[in-house]
Model the fold of this input.
Amino acid sequence: MSRKPTSKRTRPKPRAVLRLPDLDQAKSAVLNSLTSTDAQRGYRHAIEEFVEWYCSEPRLSFSRTVVLRYRIHLESRNLAPGTINLRLGAVRRLAYEAADCGLLSPDLAAGIRRVKGVKRLA
Done:
């Protein structure tokens, strides 16, 4: 009977509810991955706006449903489709980086990345 080798270092379990320090860490990871200063400025604004909205809502887990609610919030403000899609792209990237840092489970990040953007009119 052989035993599985156990590792001495265990990974912390990814969280579903991200707190402000976790969001700040993921935000800095996103901004550091961008090379253009214009892209950094746009993503910083979009992420800060999402964090402000996320913290003002009742404490829900950071999931696909929350991002869909955020999309509905953006649509209710009558923003242009390109603006909504840019902000959703920043949130998708935030989820991806949070999963890479071990702050969010990869399954939740994959669900968030599947949130569709707004269709543009011709």
Notes: Residues 59 and 66 are 10 Å apart (CA to CA). The chain has one domain: 20-113.
